[in-house]
Amino acid sequence: MSAAESPVHADASGARDEVDRIVEAWARERPDLDVAPLSVLSRVTRLSRHLDLARRQAFARHGLEPWEFDVLSALRRAGAPYRMSPGALLTQTLVTSGTMTNRIDRLASRALVERLPSPDDRRGVLVSLTDEGRTRVDAAMSTLLEIERDLLSSLPAPERDRLADLLRTLVAPFDTP
Q1: CB atoms within 10 A of CB 87
Q2: Given strand 83-84, what is the order of strands in its sheet?
Q3: pLDDT tens for residues 48-102?
Q4: From CA 58, how far away is CA 52, in angstroms rounded?
Q5: Does the global pTM surpass 0.85?
Q6: How deeply is 123 buried, as exposed, middle or buried, from its count of CB atoms within 10 A (0-12, 13-18, 19+)?
Q7: Cα dist from 125 to 41, 46, 89, 175, whole Å
Q8: DSSP label at 155?
């Protein structure tokens, strides 16, 4: 395979990464396959792994696990008075009801949330963010954004915006009900 036929593209500086090497090897070994999707999706996968590690570190600085941040941030995003039904939390965090019950129990035992009776349904409950839960999720969010800004710092703002638009196009079909 000549350089002109190679599916590997270096960036403007001529830099190559591990995905370039993987794509090139597959193209060499299986020239019958169109390996172009690897150029995008293998990078997305690798970036996801780096982002997952960065997020875990950001949350750990504030004594939170990623799942705890997910629940607390859903409550925080709901706005004052930072309360949601367990069912609404299920929708926000994409877990089963049994998992959500366990998570609420664990967060309540740490005084990060509390269960309150629902004013609309005598049998229902609302999950409410405590002051400590709000303090922790706010601090973790600030740390997360610092880390994420650093991860994106090599891209100028217009390129970040373009990347966000392109990723939205890919992700949107998965997010539609």
Answers
A1: 11
A2: 83-84, 125-129, 113-117
A3: 999 999 999 999 999 999 999 999 999 999 999 999 999 999 988 889 999 999 9
A4: 10
A5: no
A6: exposed
A7: 42, 40, 12, 27
A8: S
Q: Chain centroid to CA 62: how far?
A: 18
pLDDT at 14 > cutoff 70: no
Integer CA distances (angstroms), 117 to 36, 47, 121, 124, in order: 54, 42, 8, 6
- Classify 115 in phi/psi space as left (phi over 0), alpha (psi -120 to 50) or beta: beta
**Exposure of 32 by Cβ count < 10 A (0-12 exposed, 13-18 middle, 19+ buried)?**
exposed
Token digits for 31? Answer: 């020239």
- Residue 72's CB: how many other CB atoms inside 10 A? 26
Q: Which of 95, 76, 77, 75 is nearest to 85 (CA)?
A: 75
- Could you report the per-residue pLDDT of 101-141, keeping only the tens digit for each? 999 999 999 999 999 998 888 788 999 999 999 999 999 99
Structure letter (DSSP) for residue 61: T
**116's torsion region: left (phi>0), alpha (psi -120 to 50) or beta?**
beta
Taking the C-alpha atoms of residue 12 and residue 46, their distance in angstroms, rounded to an integer, is 21
